[in-house]
Write a structure and sequence with these properties.
The protein is 45% helix and 15% strand. By secondary structure, it is of the alpha/beta class. The chain has a single domain, classed as Decaprenyl diphosphate synthase-like (Undecaprenyl pyrophosphate synthetase, 3-Layer(aba) Sandwich). The protein is globular, with a radius of gyration of 19 Å. Bound molecules: farnesyl diphosphate. The site of farnesyl diphosphate has 21 residues, from helix 1, helix 2, strand 2 and helix 3.
Length: 243
């Protein structure tokens, strides 16, 4: 419970594509394209390191407010990623899961996501979760409504609602809690990412801009995590005794 194992579930807020492009005097799209390459490299590295679950914040609900062209480019990148990476996901035992309000996505992207989920559903070596049109509070509200509906139908008593019930009603229902949450680009905030699931996560902030992230930077984050003691409310001595 206390120490220094490899994380089961790593979640990443991929930030800094725009600044990376700006630094190179390139359009923002170029930053997102390079960011998509970083996604490929990071997924590959995570699989090699034996992570059970990797969740990537690819598009937040608030990102819909970006310029239309940028949103369109991001959707295309997502679609291309799903098409290009399917063979490797199948070959490497990667199951793809999408969380977020998929009904808001363009139908082509939604269909591609659902097709990829279906084709990879039986893979067991790693789960890759893409958060698209995702916002943690909205997911909590959706879960609360679902629970309220069960109560209204008489299938659940208010006293039966506990952490497991709530966790099981979130879009991340069958995934382990987040152990390590990484954010790139020097921003130090959580932006509505997995508020319930990452409640006890270790947080890791790096100045690296997302397009420059890859195997080496993931290893740095994992090494940093390995040196932390997770106490879950215990004293350091108690936690150490539990190993
Ligand atoms: C943040 O950078 C990044 C995003 C809003 C989108 C993340 C998307 C990708 C990495 C590429 C496509 C995704 C997949 C899964 C293939 P920003 O634009 O907010 O950067 P800035 O803060 O420097 O402007």
């Amino acid at each position: 419970m206390s120490t220094l194992h490899a994380p089961r579930h790593v979640a990443i807020i991929m930030d800094g594509n725009g600044r990376w492009a700006q630094n190179q005097a390139l359009p923002r799209t170029a930053g997102h394209e390079k960011g998509a390459e970083a996604v490929r490299a990071t997924v590959r590295a995570a699989r090699k390191r034996g992570l059970e679950c990797l969740t990537l914040f690819a598009f937040s609900t608030l990102n819909w407010q970006r310029p239309t062209d940028e949103v369109r480019d991001l959707m295309s990148l997502l679609e291309n990623f799903l098409v290009d990476e399917l063979p490797e996901m199948l070959q490497n035992g990667i199951r793809l899961v999408a969380i977020g309000e998929r009904e808001l996505l363009p139908s082509r992207v939604r269909k591609r996501l659902e097709e990829t989920e279906a084709r990879t559903a039986h893979n067991e070596d790693m789960t890759l979760v893409l958060a698209v049109s995702y916002d943690g509070r909205r997911d909590l509200v959706r879960a609360a409504r679902q629970i309220a509906e069960l109560a209204r139908r008489g299938e659940l008593l208010p006293a039966d609602v506990d952490e497991a019930q709530l966790a099981g009603s979130l879009s991340t229902a069958d995934l382990p809690d987040v152990d390590l949450l990484i954010r790139t680009s020097g921003e130090i905030r959580l932006s509505g990412f997995l508020p319930f699931e990452a409640c006890y996560a270790e947080l890791y902030f790096t100045e690296t801009l997302w397009p420059d992230f890859g195997a080496e930077q993931l290893d740095e984050a994992l090494a940093n995590y390995a040196h932390r003691q997770r106490r879950f409310g215990l004293t350091g001595e108690q936690a150490a005794a539990l190993g």
